[in-house]
Specification:
- The protein has 431 residues and is mainly alpha-helical.
- The protein is built from 17 helices and no strands.
- Helix 7 runs antiparallel to helix 9, helix 7 runs parallel beside helix 17 and helix 9 crosses helix 15.
- The longest helix has 42 residues.
- The chain is globular.
- The termini are far apart.
Length: 431
């Protein structure tokens, strides 16, 4: 009973502080997740042990000090993992297979080069330093691959420019980027689980697993889910014709069962649970609006995801950021993350569509820069699996936060520069 009371108090305090942090940061024009991460950093590094350990009952495992995680923290960690799973599930709900398969050459090349360049640059940088091992290099490369489609899409929607050529390429490329990113993560996690040795056979097995899992989910989304939809719709129509009250089938329960099952399968075959959750969301993307899944799942995600971002902050050791070498590395990684996405995505779009001019090149390149929550999720997986070092974890969190802060205002300025007429008041607009 004492444990339950402590868990409830800790959950209430963390959730309230997380939402407060998110509101404050949002008022400054930044994504709320940054505020939630800052709250976690403050609690772990500034508030002191009396608040963290005694009041909240949170003790995080420390192999060096020989301490295990407290039961309270294990509950918070589980909630954070569920939060990130449902976050990727909601991203999947916005990823229609038809859009993915019919996104066109420009979007595909934008995503492909936007994955290859950052990954290679990240891995090469860490290996060149000689301070970190191959697994650390792979996880940093995987984190640099990510693109936070939600942040860029929000900017485009707010500016009412969803119908522009650049917007269509960015959104479609970000969707493909998500899928490619999940495949890269699956490969990286599989390699690290096998001990980090570059065994060609082992790598092939991991690649095959990831590809089969992704293709299988796409096929189910395209052929199986529509039949399930038709079956329940026919049952409903038959009862209506017979003058009977139709059965009310709770689609949310069905979707959650599929989400958890796909996440479990992904973990079982050695991939990350979030990969399964993302693909599960993609299965229901065509029916998310009709079945009202988007806003129903969003309510669950809003509650759980706060614990994930607070937990990200809790695991950041602020002392590592006082190390000049770590700060220098973070600065280099941030610059590489921005430059490689800009060049890779811009060049990919130009190769795929010769009509892409310099302004479009700039918009697409900058629009794909934000790493947001996706980069942090990958870093969190690396840290929790004991592969990513504490210093590199802090570097990735900084990189994800800074690219999320830097890109949006630049993107808004570039859009306004090209589509200036959209913001010009003409006589017809005046009241």
């Amino acid at each position: 009973m004492e444990l339950l009371l402590q868990v409830l108090v800790t959950m209430a305090v963390l959730f309230a502080l997380a939402r407060f942090g998110a509101i404050i940061v949002t008022k400054c024009g930044l994504p709320g997740l940054i505020g939630e991460i800052i709250v976690g950093i403050i609690i772990a590094n500034i508030a002191g042990g009396a608040f963290l350990h005694d009041f909240l009952g949170i003790v995080i495992e420390d192999p060096i000090a020989g301490t295990d995680s407290s039961d309270v923290y294990k509950v918070i960690y589980t909630l954070s993992e569920l939060g990130v799973m449902f976050l990727l599930f909601t991203v999947g709900l916005e990823t229609k297979v038809s859009d993915l398969l019919g996104s066109g050459k420009p979007a595909f090349l934008t995503a492909l080069l936007g994955v290859i360049l950052p990954f290679v640059a990240g891995v090469a940088l860490i290996l060149a330093l000689g301070t970190y091992d191959f697994n650390n290099a792979m996880f940093l490369g995987a984190a640099m691959v990510a693109t936070s489609v939600g942040i860029t899409a929000r900017i485009i929607k707010d500016m009412q420019l969803m119908d522009t050529k650049e917007s269509r390429i960015i959104i479609a490329a970000a969707v493909i980027d998500d899928v490619l990113g999940m495949v890269v993560l699956a490969i990286v996690k599989g390699i690290s689980a096998s001990g980090g040795g570059i065994d060609v056979v082992e790598v092939l097995i991991v690649v095959i697993k990831a590809v089969i899992f992704v293709i299988g989910a796409i096929l189910i989304a395209k052929y199986v889910v529509p039949k399930v939809y038709t079956y329940f719709d026919e049952k409903k129509q038959a009862r209506i014709k017979a003058g009977k009250v139709p059965y009310t089938f709770n689609k949310l329960i069905f979707a959650i069962i599929v989400c958890l099952s796909m996440a479990a399968i992904a973990e079982f075959i050695g991939l990350a649970a979030i990969i399964g959750a993302f693909l599960a969301g993609m299965m229901f993307a065509n029916y998310a609006w009709e079945w009202e899944l988007d806003h129903k799942v969003e309510a669950i995600t809003t509650f759980l995801i706060s614990f994930f971002f607070v937990n990200v902050g809790l695991q950041v050791n602020i002392n590592s950021l006082t190390d000049l070498s770590v700060l220098v590395l973070a600065a280099i990684v941030i610059v590489l993350a921005l430059v490689t996405k800009y060049i890779g995505c811009g060049v990919g779009a130009k190769i795929g569509d010769k009509t892409v001019d310099k302004q479009s090149f700039n918009i697409i390149g900058v629009g794909m820069m934000p790493r947001g929550e996706v980069g942090i999720i990958i870093a969190s997986i690396g840290l929790s699996s004991g592969v990513l070092s504490e210093n590199l974890y802090a570097v990735v969190v900084l990189m994800s936060v800074m690219t999320t802060i830097i890109a949006p205002p630049i993107l808004s300025k570039l859009f306004r520069k090209k589509y200036e007429q959209e913001y010009t008041i003409v006589p017809e607009d005046q009241i």
